[in-house]
Amino acid sequence: MATERHDPATGRLTTGHEWNGIEELETPIPRVVFFFLAVTTLFAIVYWILMPAWPVGVTYTKGLLGIDQRAVVTKQVEDAATARAAWTGRVTEASLADIAADPELMHHVRETGRTLFIDNCAACHGVRGTGGPGFPNLAAKAWLWGGDPDTIEETIRIGINGTSPDTRVSEMMAFGRGGILETDQVRAVAAYVRSLSNLPMGEADKTRIPAGKEIFAENCVACHGEDARGSTDAGAPNLTDAAWIYGSDAQTVFTTIYSGRQGHMPSWEGRLSPVDIKMLALYVGTLGAENP
Amino acid sequence: MVTGLTVSERHMALFVLGALALAGLAMAVGGRGDPLAVHGYIVLAFSLGLGFVVLSALFAPEPPESRLSEYYDDPTRVGIILSLAWAVAGMFVGVWVAALLAWPELTFVDSAWASFGRLRPVHTSGVIFGFGGNALIATSFHVLQRTSRARLPDQFSPWFVLIGYNLFCLIAASGYLIGVTQSKEYAEPEWYADIWLVIVWVAYFVLYIRTLQRRKEPHIYVANWYYMAFILVVAVLHIVNNLAVPVTFGHAKSYSLFSGVQDAMTQWWYGHNAVAFFLTSGFLGMMYYYLPKRAGRPIFSYRLSIISFWGITFMYMWAGAHHLHYTALPQWVQTLGMTFSLVLLVPSWASAGNALATLNGAWHKVRDDATLRFMMVAAVFYGLSTFEGSFMAIRAVNSLSHYTDWTVGHVHAGALGWVAMITFGSLYALVPWMWKTERMYSPRLIELHFWLALAGTVVYVFAMWNSGIIQGLMWRTYNDSGTLAYSFIDSLVAMHPYYIARAFGGLLFLTGAVVCCVNVAMTIRMARHARKAEAGGDVPLYGQAGAAQAGE
Predict the structure, then answer these.
(1) Which burial class, exposed, middle or buried, applies to A259 when counting CB atoms under 10 A from its CB (0-12, 13-18, 19+)?
(2) Which positions are annotated as binding heme c 2 (chain A) (predicted)?
């Protein structure tokens, strides 16, 4: 029983159906809908003709423009590499010292090294290379393995306790847990080590210093040296400076001696290109110099 | 409510719950030492708990025959409440994960469940399936009966659909927290939950068809076409994308039947059509009923609603590939995804236009009535986000927007602006009808909710647009050395203020949802008081239908 009704608000007829009070108007589809339907469909058809579009059996229509996303991206990557080659070629060829002396090359190194460093190294060493508990501060120039660019390059390449067969290997032994020293002895040597950097300490610790000095001479000098200035051959830190990887408070120094430490730095060879490693080595050398 | 079931339906319910309890027990025993067992216990507790509810009313007398001359709205009422409960829970987790992104150190509990990766799907499933799904089921039962002038064919199956669906949501959300996922976005639940949802969903479709068969109207109203498309296509998508082989029947883990780029394509065919048929089609069904009803206006154009329906249904099926631009997916598939996405804009805007033009002659109501304004703004956001979607499907645009927060902003323009707004508008219209009150408890609270929701959406979407475009530009900026100008962390630093803004926008939206819950709870209380005052509870539920249902 369809009964069309005149809708005064629009002047249109209803379809005559009614559902729970809802009616519908007989409004024809506005022309603009057909217009845009035609425009978008036409665009689609033109696009299909020009670009890879429809599957045909085991292949597909390649499109008149012959565009292939794989070829496009390969070309873009090649073009970008060619454009960069103007200076990356020179970075590859030149020695680190020569690059460091060339302001133009160093401009590229700084610009690219920063992004490389933050994307790859900052997770441990921090955005500005200042490190954090367990991760050396690179801006402090307290080098474990040596700070000249060639050594830094080597450290990045092979890592420390890393996966490369040539990796640098270093370990602080667990003197307390390993049963080499008694707890009291650990406490004494910790006091002595802290006294080397004139760190503030209580009276009890001060009285331990002489005993600690003796224990140090018997157990620690092999790596850290008689003057406790460390050794870049063993990757042993200088204990007389202000740089502390794990922390300089009494508890942390005690823990370091008692339980030992074995830091890891990944071997970046194979993950980063030789040019990237070279730039990073130079960039790491500039840390601390910028924004003094 | 159990007394509303016939005695044989109560037996049926007990039988199904018993079978479910046995299934739960089997999962708990067979899955010892696996997360499957946890889910077994949840299923067991769930079905036993409900079993006691049914048992408590098992020997109550048969419901009166007069019920058959009324619509069956109990499941709709419960569905509304469940929907709002999921809304608050899901949006709360949303604000939580948004805060985690802005302040990662907020992970105050050092356990796996509190990590971003596990909480995020609780948010997405909570709002999409918990809030959206329950709202769709609740409103579809209401709309279906009213526009067919037919009562649901029985009283058991709507409960089976509603409660079964919520069991699925519960399994899904709890699974994410204990680490059960098949790592497919919006299809995370594992094989046993998927099988259960298929059973529930088929029951839903059968229920829908059976009711339509009983209709007293010569024609099927357009809202029902949209609801049916939602039910049917979601079943197809769900089944295909979740085809998987469990490691054993005693393990939660399964392996997808697809791998590599086929897996990616199947997933995004599913993913995009979940947007199309869950978040669009179903909610268009909602809009086509509640908007004209509330506005008191005829639909602007019957023909427009029909071509929009078929346009959307046909075109969306192709669009999924635009999620995989510039990937291993062959370029010809990307071309089809992009071009069909562009044509799709026309039926999408036709739907939005049809909704807005329906308001011609009722704009003064839009001004005065926040409920109708919710629906109007929903239609506007539907138009905006479908335009944005088609725009982002263009390969060149996608090369900037892909993997950035722009996508997140786009999704939320649709989810907050369209899906949630149309749902809240519809619920504000529906709740007084369902609880037989003249109006919601407080129109001013609706007004407050409207502005909270709108402000929250706008803040959220603008924050993510800015963040996403900045992100995209930073990722592709080269310096004069020809290398990348910004590190990834640089882009994170740039995004931080927008992440704070996003969390704030989300908080506004969540606050609005809480206001809605208060308003609905007070309306229900108001209805109870009114009924008690009137007749000491001695009048049949639908006794005053003539008066209170006048608006319906």
Answers:
(1) middle
(2) 172, 220, 223-224
Nearest to A52 among B293, B299, B335 (CB): B335
* Structural domain for A275, as ranges: 70-167+266-286
Residues A254 and A274 in one domain: no
B310 touches chain A (CB under 8 A): no
Of A33, A61, A89, the domain-final residue:
A61
Answer yes or no: are the C-beta atoms of B182 and B190 closer than 8 Å.
yes
How far out from the chain centre does Cα B6 lie?
Answer: 31
- Same domain, residue pair A279 and A240: no
Mutate to test the interface with B, among A24, A78, A88 (most CBs of B within 10 A): A24
Structural tokens at position B43: 């299923």
**Two tokens at B371?**
């409920």
A172 marked as binding residue: yes
C-alpha to C-alpha distance for B371 and B439, rounded to whole angstroms: 11
pLDDT at A11: 87
Mutate to test the interface with A, among B262, B305, B331 (most CBs of A within 10 A): B331
pLDDT in tens, B427-484: 999 999 999 999 999 999 999 999 999 999 999 999 999 999 999 999 999 999 999 9
pLDDT at A292: 37
Same domain, A11 and A132: no
Instruction: Say if residue A121 carries a ligand binding annotation.
Output: yes
Q: ∠ at Cα A109 (A106, A112), nearest 5°?
A: 150
- What is this structure's pTM? 0.91
Q: Write out pLDDT tens, residues B369-405.
A: 999 999 999 999 999 999 999 999 999 999 999 999 9
Q: Examine the predicted complex and report whether its ipTM is higher than 0.85.
A: yes
Residue B548 has pLDDT above 70, yes or no: no
Count of structural domains, chain A: 3
Residues of chain B contacting A14 with CB distance shorter than 8 Å: 298
In a shared domain, residues A192 and A238: yes
pLDDT at position A288 over 90: no
Quick: pLDDT tens for B348-363.
999 999 999 999 999 9
Looking at the fold, whether A76 and A134 belong to one and the same domain comes out as yes
For B396, the token pair is: 């060149």
Find the closest chain A residue to B219 by CA distance. Answer: A17
Contact A44 B334 (CB under 8 A): no
* Residue A291 in domain: no
Q: d(Cα B445, Cα A17) in Å, to the nearest integer?
A: 36
The domain that contains A191 carries what CATH number?
1.10.760.10
Question: Distance from B360 to chain A by nearest Cα, in Å?
Answer: 8
* Locus of tokens 């909602």: B286
The alpha carbon of residue A28 is apart from the nearest alpha carbon of chain B, in Å, by 7
Identify whether A176 is part of a domain. no
Are A91 and A154 members of one domain? yes
User: Is A219 inside any structural domain?
Assistant: yes
Mean pLDDT value across residues B530-541: 66
A77 and A215 in a single domain? The answer is no
Residue A187 belongs to some domain of the structure: yes
Contact A63, A47 (CB under 8 A): no
The secondary element (H helix, E strand) that includes residue B452 is: helix B443-475
The pLDDT of residue B109 is 82
Cβ contacts (< 8 Å) between B218 and chain A: which residues? 2, 17
Tokens of residue B252, six digits: 């939660």
Mark whether A250 and A191 lie in a shared domain.
Answer: yes
Name the residue among B162, B314, B319 with its Cα closest to residue B229. B314
Q: What distance in Å separates residue B345's CA from the closest CA in chain A?
A: 9
Q: What percentage of chain B exceeds 70 in pLDDT?
A: 97
Element (H, E) at A55: strand A55-56
Q: H helices within B31-153, ranges in order?
A: 35-56, 74-102, 116-125, 134-148
Q: CA of B435, closest CA in chain A: separation in Å?
A: 18
Q: Is the dihedral of CA A239, A242, A248, A250 positive or negative?
A: positive
